Amino acid sequence: MPPPRPLLLLDVDGPLNPYHADPDSRPPGYRPWRAEPHWASGPVEVWLNRAHGERLRALPFDLVWATTWQDCANRWIGPALGLPPLPFVALPGPAVWRPDDTSPKTWPLVAWAAGRPFAWVDDDIGEADRAYVAARHAGPALLRRVHPGRGLVEADFALLSAWAAGLCGGGGGPGG
Ligand SMILES: [Mg+2]
Questions:
Q1: Contact residues for 58 (Cβ-Cβ < 8 A; gap 6+)
Q2: pTM for this structure?
Q3: Relative to the CA of 17, which of 2, 6, 76, 145 has its CA 20 to 30 Å away?
């Protein structure tokens, strides 16, 4: 049996919704979408690039939501991108302070992956997160910080593909 494919842990705000872009000069390919996630008091506008859905599906990963949108991503984000319903990692609600300065997502993501190789794309990855993953995650991991003003770009897709290909050859490692 072939080994399971690596996981791609997907943040929404930043990689898929470049919320930090200048409203007058957003990156090309993005359109506004209206969403009503559970955590908002009313409708919110996100900017999404529908082409990202196909690009993500073509990658040799199993896609997983790793976002404070949690299951709401399956209702409001996935359909806009043409993605099927995806599993999601349960995350703490409001941001909680971590004594090790990691993101509130890092501990749950590492626990959820349970040693399985994963790549994580997020706009909020720092050195503490890299250190935690290196110390606590038994398998290969790639932590890719995405600029929240640009969202996922060609270099991100290329890196993800190359990293996954390296896994098949027995490589991997902590990555960057
Ligand atoms: Mg984010």
A1: none
A2: 0.92
A3: 6
